[in-house]
Amino acid sequence: MPNLSYRISLRVKDNRSSRNARNLAAFLAQRDEIHNALGDGWTIYQIWETLHAEQKITTSYNTFCNQVNRLIIKREGAALPKKKSTDQSPSPPRHADTTGFTFSSTPLKDEEIL
């Protein structure tokens, strides 16, 4: 028996489902492939163009971008472990060395070129 995601996508493809539900189901069915293609360095546009030409995705490019951002990119960011805060106090700010070159837009009298 096919997995649940596949069965849901088949059910949602039914014409009685809303267009948004069908588009979301089509995207979710391709999500792993889209994620892998992004990891391989392909642009969102190239992925959308290919899936759209293959008629696997029927959404507009703008909707596809929103789905990628919401369902792949933001979820990846949420899945990353947060850095543990340390009890160490922050290091003091570094001060610029004042013995080096300093620029002044006003020339000094003894440095003027005639």
TrEMBL record:
<feature type="region of interest" description="Disordered">
    <location>
        <begin position="76"/>
        <end position="114"/>
    </location>
</feature>
<dbReference type="Pfam" id="PF17273">
    <property type="entry name" value="DUF5338"/>
</dbReference>
<dbReference type="InterPro" id="IPR035225">
    <property type="entry name" value="DUF5338"/>
</dbReference>
<protein>
    <submittedName>
        <fullName>Uncharacterized protein</fullName>
    </submittedName>
</protein>
